[in-house]
Amino acid sequence: MSHNNLKNIEPRAEIQWFAQQMETKLRENDWKGGWKDCRIQYLLEKLDEEVHELSGCISNEEAIKEAADVANIAMMIADLCREEKGRAI
């Protein structure tokens, strides 16, 4: 299914909840200026760092926050690819 066919799909409750976790983490980092000018290679390195942090979590609350960080970095990569601003991975 192409991304154009997804316009009328209602996200599952779990996706909506997790998207809120992601947005919370993004807003905490708004001062950094966003990702639109980032290189994909930089974001891939950040993704690796965030996955490492996630693997070291000792509480569920911490794991949720780190999982949102991982998802946000992956979203940033996808967003740049979608906008064709990044080079192919």
Write structural notes for this entry.
This protein has a domain at 40-89. It is globular. Helix 1 (13-28) packs across helix 3. It is built from three helices and no strands. The protein has helices spanning 13-28, 40-55, 60-82. The two termini are 21 Å apart.
Q: Can you summarize this structure?
A:
By secondary structure, the chain is an all-alpha fold.
Mean pLDDT over the full residue set? 92
In terms of per-residue confidence, which ranges show pLDDT below 50 for 5 or more consecutive residues? Answer: none
What share of the residues lie within helices?
55-70%
SS strand fraction? under 5%
Count the strands?
Answer: 0
**Cα shape:** globular
* String of helices and strands: HHH
Distance between the termini: 21 Å
- The SS-based structural class is mainly alpha
The biggest beta sheet is recorded as:
none
Radius of gyration: 14 Å
| SS field, number of helical segments | 3
